[in-house]
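Journal club prep, shared notes

We agreed each person brings one worked example of a sequence with its structure written out as tokens. Mine is Class I SAM-dependent methyltransferase. I'm keeping it raw so we can talk through how to read the token line rather than staring at a rendered picture. Sequence first:
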Amino acid sequence: MARYRPGMGDKRYDRAYFDRWYRKGGMGGRQRLARKVALAVSTAEYHLERPLRTVLDIGCGEGAWRAPLLKLRPGAGYLGFDGSAYAVARYGTRRNLHLARFADFAHLRPCAPVDLLVCSDVLHYLDARELDRGLPGLAALCGGVAFLETFAREDQAEGDEDGFMQRPAAFYRKRFEASGFRALGSHCWLSPALQDEATALEVAPPALG
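Then the structure, token by token:
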């Protein structure tokens, strides 16, 4: 479990925060991150039936996904957004990171729909109002697969518990599906654009209705 920087409250997502949870705490380490990136890339390419070209990372922090992603697909375009002024000021130019809150994606459309949309360790730190405002925008910006790594009440996850929302998994499933996503498993969700191409057993049965 990790973080999102919503730009509100007393919690500061500055260098000390990233030092604590990522450089000293590890938060799973580089090998675990590399496996997540490989999973997301391969899942997107399986459903797209071609190499991945574009990635949008919402709640990207310092852009940790960028290096392992470009190691796998050097020609891919990476674009990140985060609410941490520190992260964007320090790494924005080098890693193509930009400042935005999650709720901004109710209207913000910074690019055409991407092959892979990443929103990792973000949604469980948002209040329901901000989550509901931004989530339909994620579906609109995803033309392939979304990696929506989210932790629920049932998971007993370890990490930064400050601001963590104790919600059941069903809370997220219903909202993801209402936005148009279909579950693929392992935090991967198929975009509305590709659902007509998926076979019955490639996606999970809808939780809604």
